[in-house]
Amino acid sequence: MNGTALLLGDLQNDFLHPNGAYGRAGQSAPEIAALPARLKPLADAMRQRGGLVVATLFTLVPGRGGEPIISAHLKKLRPFLAKGDFAPDSWGQRVVDQLLPVDVTVEKIAYSAFHASRLEWVLHKCGIERLIVAGIVTNGGVASTVRDAHVREFECTVLEDGCAAFSPDVHRAAIEGLRPVARIITVAEAMREIEAA
To answer: What gap in Å lies between CA 87 and CA 96, rounded to an integer?
Structure first.
């Protein structure tokens, strides 16, 4: 387990909490809301068996006047995002309380957690060769991160019921699209493997 990390993608207050940016805008899905409770026992088991728990934190970097730097495609998709949302070191940027503690956090600014971040450096320095990936959204951050991990030669496992999207159909399509580059299992299957390690 020393060479394995559970990668929790973007399970943050601004995405999941009712008072977060997405909650205030009415942007949620029951499948997304259910993830912290489902993943907490797995995260605890990983840590107890010597694995690493890494959380990626989507971040909107403040620019001029403190206004967030938002990519044009994201601004079009999520026009409700505003000053202070996903700001560095803010409550909204933090991992939801239910999943704390985590061992390492890595800020990310794009779909892929590897793009312009320190994630690859952290994983190599911690001796990680295998990733178990969970989080949101399956067709965005999860898929992009898994594909980038694959080309960097990390062995990837995706937790089918440990990820979610705003639509079950979109989630299922994204999972099918990841089968060529990752092993797909359930949280229960991952828990059994971790307990047997």
So the answer is: 15
pTM: 0.97
Q: Which pLDDT tens digit goes with each residue over 94-144?
A: 999 999 999 999 999 999 999 999 999 999 999 999 999 999 999 999 999
Distance CA 97, CA 25 (A): 21
Sign of the C-alpha dihedral computed for residues 126, 2, 164 and 87 taken in this order: negative
Q: Is 81 left (phi over 0), alpha (psi -120 to 50) or beta?
A: beta
Q: pLDDT digits over 133-170, tens only?
A: 999 999 999 999 999 999 999 999 999 999 999 999 99
Domains with residue ranges and CATH for the chain: 4-196 (3.40.50.850)
Asked if residues 38 and 187 have their Cβ atoms less than 8 Å apart, the reply is yes
Q: Is the CB of residue 64 less than 8 Å from the CB of residue 17?
A: no
Q: In what order do the strands lie in the sheet with 104-108?
A: 104-108, 52-58, 4-9, 130-136, 155-164, 183-185
d(CA 119, CA 10): 13
